[in-house]
Design brief:
Blueprint (H helix, E strand, L loop, with lengths): L1 H23 L14 H14 L6 E5 H25 L6 H11 L6 H9 L3 H19 L10 E2 L5 H8 L9 H4 L2 H8 L2 E3 L7 E3 L12 H6 L2 H19 L3 H34 L8
Antiparallel strand pairs: 1-2, 3-4
Helix pairs in contact: 2-11, 3-4, 3-6, 4-5, 9-11
Length: 289
């Protein structure tokens, strides 16, 4: 019993010392100020991630077509609705309008007459399916740089064996990095690379010392102003926040609607309660003999 108490005390002392050391070495994290409802930010973040990060890092819990559906489909639908409105109002159709109508009918469109003829042959569900297919084509063009299909998980281009040789460790999957580390950590980490001639890639990181990762965003840092670079990093962080929980886009929107419904229900319930208790107070409800 005495030995058990001694061991327990030693463990507690060790944990206390560890927590104190962690507290003393805690690094200040800048506020990412991300907004998962900002679709333009998510779209830019997706493109930047695919261009600068996906070569080494997977987000294998996410598929390309899910990214297309969540982040790009609404733009395709809005473009079609605007083009259709211009078509019905007999306004001149721009090149963008003709492309949007072509997406809806899954066929090249040259003029308004052809567009009307083709749209008249399709049901609403067929047009919806064609717009989804057009979005997949956009994803294939802008986000997929290897032989993967649009329905495939987003897997890093680099092999695990090659990564082990070149970096000394396999780059982690970033599907849940925003949930495990937090958006502030990601945002600060990506902006904290600095020159260090003692490291293999000539850079180190203030947030994660002696990290094996090179400064992959160095070109953005050099070619853009500081506010523009910070916004790009914020967009990447925002995209990784979305990847960690794609349902958050629906959950937050639904949450506001539920809270609004409950607020209205509370008002109606309160007024109903007052109406019932008015009768009780003035004796209109009496027990029958």
């Amino acid at each position: 019993m005495k030995k058990l108490l001694t061991t327990t005390a030693s463990v507690l002392v060790g944990l206390t010392i560890s927590f104190n050391l962690l507290a003393n070495s805690e690094i200040h994290l800048d506020h990412a100020d991300t907004d998962i409802s900002d679709q333009k930010s998510l779209q830019n973040g997706a493109k930047l991630f695919m261009n600068y990060c996906s070569g080494c890092h997977s987000i294998s819990f996410m598929r390309y077509n899910r990214i297309g559906k969540d982040l790009f489909l609404s733009d395709t639908v809005k473009a079609y609705e605007q083009a259709k409105a211009n078509l019905l109002d007999k306004k001149p159709l721009s090149v963008a309008d003709l492309q949007a109508l072509a997406n809806a009918v899954d066929n090249p469109v040259k003029d308004a007459k052809q567009a009307k003829a083709l749209l008249g042959k399709l049901s609403a569900s067929q047009i919806e399916e064609n717009l989804s297919k057009a979005t997949d084509k956009i994803v294939e063009k802008d986000l997929i740089f290897n032989t993967e299909k649009v329905g495939s998980p987003v897997v890093a281009a680099i092999s695990k064996k090659g990564a082990k040789i070149w970096f000394g460790a396999t780059p982690p999957d970033l599907s849940l990095i925003a949930r495990s580390r937090g958006t502030d950590w990601i945002y600060t980490y990506l902006r904290s690379f600095h020159e260090d001639d003692t490291r293999p890639f000539g850079v180190n990181n203030k947030v994660l010392a002696n990290v094996s990762m090179p400064d992959v965003l160095w070109y953005l840092k050099q070619s853009k102003s500081t506010p523009e670079f910070n916004q790009d990093v914020r967009d990447i962080t925002n995209f990784l926040d979305y990847v960690g929980e794609p349902a958050k886009l629906i959950r937050i929107d639904l949450g506001y609607k539920v809270l609004g419904f409950l607020f209205i229900l509370f008002i109606l319930s309160y007024l109903l309660k007052k109406e019932y208790w008015r009768d009780v107070k003035y004796g209109k409800w009496k027990a029958k003999d």
